[in-house]
Design a protein that fits this description.
It is built from 13 helices and 15 strands. The protein is of the alpha/beta class. The strands form three sheets. Strands 3, 4, 5, 6, 7, 14 and 15 form a seven-stranded mixed beta sheet that branches. It has a six-stranded parallel beta sheet with strand order 10-9-8-11-12-13, with helices on both faces. Helix 5 crosses helix 6, helix 5 crosses helix 12 and helix 8 runs parallel beside helix 10.
Length: 403
């Protein structure tokens, strides 16, 4: 079968690979009818996350049809349409039972303290082959797959594989109460769903922060008040918009791959931080540098976090769902402590939210297709990756369709 395969940092290819098969009684094999490219996939390709093993199939978002089932999968049958939850969870351990599926004690073969397992990730996550392929083996299928009703299309369901649950998790972790003012830093696909989720949870106002006009335009269509950090200092603007108080909740949907301000009031501070970080990076061995050749001055890790803490009102809540590698060790703890902030963060427990979001889409409460900007054939995945990586205008979320 055809699949998008990682060979080295910056080197991915469309290869012929072996068809998947049942390996454990809890497995299923699905024929993939829709996949997608996520910003997290770019972390693997850019080398932001080290430990990717050559030969690993990429991708952690998919919709498909069940073709084979292990003997211990009792809630599905052949021919069922399903959406794949991008983090793998056994469904039986104490963490899964408590709703922390992304901290499953069993799924990661490296042990119960090894961290989250997900499709198409680096060695420490399993690794498990990803979903940008014609077929895929799904471990712990009874939990990792969610059956789809006929009323939910593939285009809608692909958003429920990862980015919609992640945005919803971010809003949930932010503890949004009726009438709260919420700022969302980063208006990529996850940020867009964080905006939508905040509004569904009763936020009175949502302020969206980014510098790409296509993303800000999409946020504005959702009713968000937009701040372009290329043109104004985001903290000063947010404080002014909130009558000098700050926002009640912030969702950081940016992570380590933030783009800094290119000019304007925010630029100098970001550049100074970037130069300090580069000096630290230059002192470590290349294999310890998660940014590698992909990092350049101005991409100051943690800038969004600093803005977030500064923009929050006293006793506010910061929800962090943007991806940060273990090597990221900088945080404005002093300012956060002195403002009595609550900070919640983590990898999304997709299975916790997936069934509920399927129901929301089925009933018409929300149509997630509004976030989808491009549909490309799987055979064109490499070019789609390049366009997505270049952050070309209008390329916000990309679906891949197998032949």
């Amino acid at each position: 079968m055809k699949a998008v395969v990682f060979h080295a940092v910056g080197d991915i290819r469309m290869d012929d690979v072996a068809d998947p098969r049942i390996e454990q009684p809890t497995d299923a094999v699905i024929r993939i009818t829709a996949a997608a490219i996520c910003g997290t996939d770019l972390h693997m390709v850019r080398g932001t996350f080290s430990g990717m093993e050559p030969g690993t199939i990429l991708g952690h978002e998919a919709v498909g049809v069940v073709e084979e089932l292990g003997s211990m999968v009792r809630n599905l049958q052949k021919g069922d349409r399903v959406v794949v939850m991008s983090t793998i969870a056994c469904g039986s351990c104490s963490y899964c039972r408590a709703g922390y599926h992304s901290q499953c004690d069993v799924a990661n073969p490296h042990g119960n303290r090894a961290g989250t397992s997900f499709f198409g990730g680096p060695g420490p996550t399993g690794p498990f082959h990803g979903l940008q392929a014609e077929r895929a083996r799904i471990p712990y299928a009874a939990t990792t797959l969610v059956k789809l009703p006929d009323q939910v299309s593939d285009e809608q369901a692909i958003m429920i594989s990862d980015i919609f649950p992640t945005g919803y998790f971010g809003a949930d972790a932010a503890e949004i109460a009726e009438g709260d003012t919420v700022a969302v830093f980063g208006c990529g696909p996850v940020g867009q769903f964080a905006i939508a989720s905040a509004r569904m949870m009763g936020a009175g106002r949502v302020i969206a922060v980014d510098h790409r006009e296509d993303r800000l335009a999409m946020a504005r269509r959702q009713g968000a008040e937009c701040v372009n950090f290329d043109k104004e200092d985001p903290v000063e603007t947010i404080v002014a918009l909130t009558g000098g108080i700050g926002v009640d909740r912030v969702i950081d949907a940016v992570g380590v791959d933030a783009e800094h301000a290119h000019h304007g009031p925010a630029t100098q501070k970001a550049d100074e931080k970037a130069e300090t970080y580069q000096a630290q990076v230059d002192q470590v061995a290349p294999e310890q540098n998660p940014q590698g050749d992909n990092w350049h001055p101005g991409d100051a890790p943690g800038q969004a976090l600093e803005w977030a803490v500064a923009a929050l009102a006293k006793a506010g809540t910061l929800s962090i769902i943007g991806v940060y590698p273990p090597t990221m060790q900088s945080f404005p703890i002093g300012m956060a402590m002195n403002k009595n902030l609550t900070i919640k963060m983590g990898n999304c427990p997709h299975r916790r939210y997936g069934p509920h979001l399927v129901d929301l889409v089925r009933t018409g409460a929300i149509d997630p297709v509004a976030i989808l900007t491009h549909t490309e054939p799987m055979t064109g995945a490499i070019e789609a990756y390049k366009a997505f990586d270049r952050r070309q205008s209008g390329w916000i979320k990309v679906e891949l369709e197998p032949a």
